[in-house]
Amino acid sequence: MAWSSSGRRAQLPKGWSSRIVPRILARDGHRCVARLTDGTRCTETERLEVDHIGDPLNHGDANLQTLCRRHHKRKTQAESAQARRARPKERRRRPAERHPGLL
Prior knowledge:
Elements: H1 16-27, E1 48-52, E2 64-68, H2 69-86
Antiparallel strand pairs: 1-2
């Protein structure tokens, strides 16, 4: 979901862009904290975003991390897929109707 069509920005606290984001970026050394498959840390230092590790309404430093755009997108897509799998599947077909001659 794009930011332009999301209400997510309204849930961010006052000072998010001016105080919180710069503080988290500095704490993480202005570098993505995602781990690569070989266990090393991602080397991306551009296109960085601050991500909520867990609860999106918890803006505490312990719940925030720096991710590059690629890793943030990957994490968000995985969380979205997990949420979709957790929802009960809707019936994809109409229920079968009894034949009128059998009523």
